Amino acid sequence: MIRGLVVALLLIEGVAWADDPLAQARKAVAISDYTSARAQLAAALDAGNRGPDEIAELYRLTGIVAAALGDAKAATDAFTHLLALSPKAELPAGTSPKIKRPFEAAGRFFSAPGAPHEPLELKVETHASPPTLTLIAVSDPLDMVARARVVFAIDGGPEQTKDVVASERTEVALPAGKRIDARVAALDGHGNRLVEIGSKEVPIVIIGEPPPPPPIATRPPPPRAAPVAAGRPLYLRWWPYAAGAVAFGGATAYFAWSARSDTRELERLSADSVHHSFGEAMDVESRGRRNVLLTNIGLGVTGAFAVTAAVMAFTTPGGRAEARITAMPVRGGGAVVFGGNF
Fold it and tell me: How confident is the model at residue 17 (pLDDT cuts 50, 70, 90)?
């Protein structure tokens, strides 16, 4: 059973190896099948997702294949990319001069007197507030870096990825966190990783402030009720006096109407005295005098109640309320006197 499992794993690995164009290119170069190798190398470059070591090998093999096929210009270009990525790269001992000449020409691109070219060099700057990671292209003579990819984790959480278009200073804003673990890769136009700074095991660490807690929704305080003034005693309120004024006003109106009726009745009896006795006229006169007296008293009392109601309605007690009501005689009747402080 174990032997079968090992055989199955070898078969799977063989299939994966057979599907990898870079692996196929290595085999083709080993048997000097440069035409097939050239096609496989182009496919490997276009497929993307290669790491820095694989990209360096790809450009080395591309230079060797192009030189072997007599394309010195393409070979020099490939070797120049190789030396930009790996300045200490060398060709194997015993390499034919046909391949060494383009390699040496590529070396002169960086080392010739007066040539200001430097190999690809990138560095990273970080800022804690706000959290930012900046990829700086110190030197990129062949404009190889097209995008920057930042993989980061906030406070030990799951990893997230940001891809942005690269420039001389590529700033990547990160979410706030107490600790940010990040790594950055410079990508070429095919998505291959030319340079990697930081790793999952040894990340770039940014120490910052944790994000502010979300605001807590609070209910607005209930509206405060308007202070209620202390109630006034019944005898200092306006409406009892207004009610009294209405009641006495109604009674006064009744007595006034009765007095007017008695006056008309007395005038009628005087005009027709032949048919009425003197005593009958005296009774009507006596009743009329009583109604007139009650009408006058009612007018006085109604007026007093009306004035008191008006005073109560338009004044507010200040301090301790005090009121006094006094009845006093006046000529022809009486009066009610109301006094105090309000």
Answer: very low
CA dihedral 222, 227, 232, 234 (to 10 degrees): -10
Q: Is pLDDT of 13 > 80?
A: no
Q: State the angle between helix axes of 21-30 and 34-47 in degrees (0 to 180), rounded to the nearest 10.
A: 160
Average pLDDT over residues 145-170: 96
Strand partners, 172: 133
| HEC string for 89-133 | CCCCCCCCHHHHHHHHHHHHHHHCCCCCCCCCEEEEEEECCCCEE
Integer Cα distance of 248 and 304 in angstroms: 10
User: In the chain, where are the structural domains located?
Assistant: 2-111, 121-207, 234-341
162: tokens are 């940001």
CA-based end-to-end distance of the chain? 112
Q: Give me the helix-helix angle, 97-111 and 52-68, nearest 10°.
A: 130
pLDDT reading at 1 higher than 50: no
Give the C-alpha distances (Å, rounded to integers) separating 29 from 49, 73, 339. 22, 19, 126
Decide: pTM greater than 0.70. Answer: no
Instruction: Tell me how far apart the alpha carbons of residues 259 and 240 are, in angstroms, rounded to a whole number.
Output: 28
pLDDT for 136 beyond 90: yes
Backbone phi, then psi, for 291, in 5-degree steps?
-65, -35
Q: Give the whole-angstrom CA distance, residue 151 versus residue 321.
A: 82
What would be the CATH architecture of the domain defined by 2-111?
Answer: Alpha Horseshoe (1.25)
Angle (CA) 87 90 94, round 5°:
165
- 17 CB contacts (<8 Å, ≥6 apart)? 23
Domain 121-207 classified CATH 2.60.40.10?
yes
* Tokens coding 207: 């120490």
**Best CA proximity match to 182, nearest among 224, 134, 142, 217:** 134
Is 86 strand, coil or helix? Answer: coil
